[in-house]
Amino acid sequence: MRKLLISITLLTATTLVADVQAGEKVYKENCAICHTVNGGKALGPDFNMVAYSRHKEDIEKYAKDPYSMYKSFGYSANAMPTLPLEDQQFKDVADYISSLQPFKKWMIKKKPSKKVIVKKEDNNESIEPKA
Question: Which GO terms describe its molecular function (predicted)?
Fold first, then answer.
């Protein structure tokens, strides 16, 4: 049973690496003309920031049909063309983009507010920072 579990784990890890590598190839052939990774001047957003702020599934949906998704991403306009890629290529490039940023925006915990409501002698309430 243990050998089976190890085999499945290794197979899954190998498949994920292959998807990321295939996605990097798709990126270089189809996306790099407009998008950078880790900075640089480009027409489209840097994929490192896309990876930080978007779920992999949303990246894939946007890549497949940018015209139907750009408003939900908060963009006021869309210059990205619809790319003639296969479904697997969209999945691979989404895997690649997502792999660029292991820590995601939604993983960061916001600090809780340290404000308390204080009753004053005149029965008025005020919000004051907690010491």
Answer: electron transfer activity; heme binding; metal ion binding
Report the C-alpha gap between 3 and 25 in whole angstroms: 33
In sequence order, what are the residues at sequence separation of 6 or more whose Cβ sits closer than 8 angstroms to the Cβ of residue 3? none
E strands of 58-124, at which residues?
115-119
Residue appearing with tokens 């490192």: 48
For residue 77, what pLDDT band results from cuts at 50, 70 and 90? Answer: confident
126/15: higher pLDDT: 126
**Assigned token pair, 2:** 């243990």
The three-state secondary structure class of 119 is strand
pLDDT one-digit tens code per residue, 88-97: 999 999 999 9
Backbone angles phi, psi at 128, to 5 degrees: -130, 150
What tokens does 49 get? 């920031």
Q: By three-state DSSP, how is residue 38 classified?
A: coil
Helices (H), 27-86: 47-53, 56-64, 66-69
